[in-house]
Design a protein that fits this description.
The protein is elongated, with a radius of gyration of 21 Å. It has twelve helices and no strands. 79% of the residues lie in helices and 0% in strands. By secondary structure, it is mainly α.
Length: 283
């Protein structure tokens, strides 16, 4: 009788398009994420800065839609879905949002298609330029729609007034995991309608349920500051310093790490392939 692992391998060859020890869909998703992650990691400084700036602007677009719907309906859930317009814009424009970089480029790094230093560069540049693009866009929104002042100030104070508690920590962790999961789901489809639906659901969950997301909420806070809210940059920065690490815990520990474990065989195979290629180049 064949050993169990040989039987499993034979069954994969018979039933799947590949002989890998995971589902064919996971193989395709892994290959796509490694390729896209390597592209992100190897962008020039200029390309990184521009995609990050537009990421902040796209988020600002979603915030503008959120404020309009909240002002008209008073429904936080509908406003959250409206915010999903900004997330959909991110997908279509291939812009960068900080927490979207928790899964795809890490796949490329662990598969040896990039380095941890490149990943750190991607994270830092994306986060800084997200904030810069959002700061600038919300200045324009504030100047164009002064009627939203009361709403945006109330929302911003609501984000920051509780400080770090078990509740707010959990909301920050959930925000990181939700955005990362929506990125993974979007990676699994090429259908724009499905992508739009994922974006709307993500907005409903993250914004509609009042989760704390360092980059998204910061852009809202910047809008409130532009409109005269009694929030200093020091107040914002202290809040930001504990929200961002908790977003990272949610995205990396809850979503990315289990996904890496699930595709460990594929990672090992790709690492071996890369090692062989590099050895051949040196030879």
């Amino acid at each position: 009788m064949e050993p169990d692992h040989q039987q499993t391998e034979q069954k994969r060859k018979e039933l799947g398009r590949t002989d890998e020890p995971v589902e064919d869909e996971l193989v395709e998703e892994f290959e796509n994420t490694v390729t896209e992650g390597a592209d992100r990691l190897n962008r020039t400084w200029r390309a990184l800065a521009i995609t990050g700036l537009f990421g902040g602007i796209d988020v600002g677009l979603g915030i503008m839609a959120m404020l309009a719907v909240l002002d008209a309906t008073g429904s936080e859930l509908l406003a959250g879905m409206a915010f999903g317009i900004g997330l959909f814009a991110l997908r279509l424009a291939h812009s960068e949002l900080f927490t979207e970089d928790f899964l795809i480029p890490i796949n490329a790094v662990v598969a040896r298609h990039g380095t941890w230093l490149q990943l750190l560069r991607l994270w830092v540049v994306t986060l800084v330029t997200n904030l810069a693009g959002g700061w600038l866009f919300m200045w324009v929104v504030g100047a164009a729609f002064p009627q939203f002042e009361r709403l945006i100030v109330e929302i911003s104070v609501g984000y920051m007034e509780k400080g770090l508690t078990l509740e707010t920590a959990a909301l920050a962790v959930l925000a990181g995991s939700t955005i990362t999961l929506s990125t993974r789901m979007s990676q699994g489809t090429t259908n724009d309608v499905v992508t739009a639906l994922i974006s709307l659901i993500s907005g409903l969950l993250v914004v509609g349920l009042g989760m704390l997301h360092g980059a998204l909420n910061s852009i809202v806070v910047f809008g409130a500051m532009h409109m005269g809210a009694a929030i200093s940059y020091t107040d914002w920065f202290v809040w930001f310093l504990w929200v961002i690490p908790l977003n990272m815990v949610g995205g990396l520990a809850i979503i990315t790490l289990p996904r890496l474990v699930r595709t460990l065989e594929l990672i090992k195979k790709e690492r071996a392939k890369q090692a062989g290629r590099l050895a051949g180049e040196r030879g």
